[in-house]
Design a protein that fits this description.
The complex is a heterodimer of chains A (110) and B (115). With 110 residues, chain A is an all-beta fold. In chain A, 0% of the residues lie in helices and 56% in strands. Chain A is built from no helices and eleven strands. In chain A, strand 9 and strand 10 form a beta hairpin. The radius of gyration of chain A is 13 Å and the shape is globular. In chain B, strands 2, 4, 5, 6, 9, 10 and 11 form a seven-stranded mixed β-sheet that branches. Chain B has a four-stranded antiparallel β-sheet with strand order 1-3-8-7, with no helix packed on it. Chain B is mostly beta strands. The chains are: A mainly beta (110), B mainly beta (115). Chains A and B meet through strand 4, strand 5, strand 9 and strand 10 of A and strand 4 and strand 5 of B.
């Protein structure tokens, strides 16, 4: 079983739609959680951190459920520019080992 | 400010040849990571360093792979001998804070093709 698992998609949605991605992790000692975004043939870049209480950044909302060991990302009012691969990231206790999920591909169409 | 710098950006080589990938992290960053990305396996953590010391190399596929960080501003990932299945994009990333709060700054990657 992979340490971090994501639905690979692709998710095909129209502009303005709301879309949600989930990610599960296997190690309960996981400490910190993040979402990264990767555009085609580019490097990954940090999108947002995920806090236990949930957090928002504009149209993006991230949530963490430690009991069920999953995190989620909600994108509201999708834009064409949101088309990318979204990577779930888990850092283990101790702070160094940073594990990426395989990513979920999103296509937003006009 | 310069970001993480990787070289070469692209390399095409023949099976059996030695490949050396290079990385210059962002100045002042304590941690450095090497990842490999393929369509089939996604982003795999190969090895990471903290303050130039290798912390965990359990992701290194086999003895053909080796990584060094002789100083705070330079790291190499070497594959010897290379095989076609090593074809991938290799990313180097650095992080500014010991213990790593999660923001990794990635280089643009080195795209390796082994024929």
């Amino acid at each position: 079983r992979k340490e971090v698992e994501q639905d690979p998609g692709p998710f095909n949605v129209p502009e303005g739609a709301t879309v949600a991605f989930n990610c599960t992790y296997s190690n309960s000692a996981s400490q910190s959680f993040f979402w990264y975004r990767q555009d085609c043939r580019k490097e990954p870049k940090l999108l947002m951190s995920v806090y236990s209480s949930g957090n928002e950044d504009g149209r993006f909302t991230a949530q963490l459920n430690r009991a069920s060991q999953y995190i989620s990302l909600l994108i509201r009012d999708s834009k064409l520019s949101d088309s990318a691969t979204y990577l779930c990231v888990v850092i283990y206790t101790g702070g160094f080992k940073t594990i990426f999920g395989a990513g979920t591909r999103l296509f937003v169409k006009a | 400010d310069a970001g993480v710098i990787q070289s070469p950006r692209h390399e095409v080589t023949e099976m059996g040849q030695e490949v050396t990938l290079r990385c210059k992290p962002i100045s002042g960053h304590n941690s450095l990571f090497w990842y490999r990305q393929t369509m089939m396996r996604g982003l795999e953590l190969l090895i990471y360093f903290n303050n130039n010391v290798p912390i965990d190399d359990s992701g290194m596929p086999e003895d053909r792979f080796s990584a060094k960080m002789p100083n705070a501003s330079f790291s190499t990932l070497k594959i010897q001998p290379s095989e076609p299945r090593d074809s991938a994009v290799y990313f180097c990333a650095s992080s500014p804070i010991q213990g790593n709060t999660g923001e990794l700054f990635f280089g643009e990657g080195s795209r390796l093709t082994v024929l």
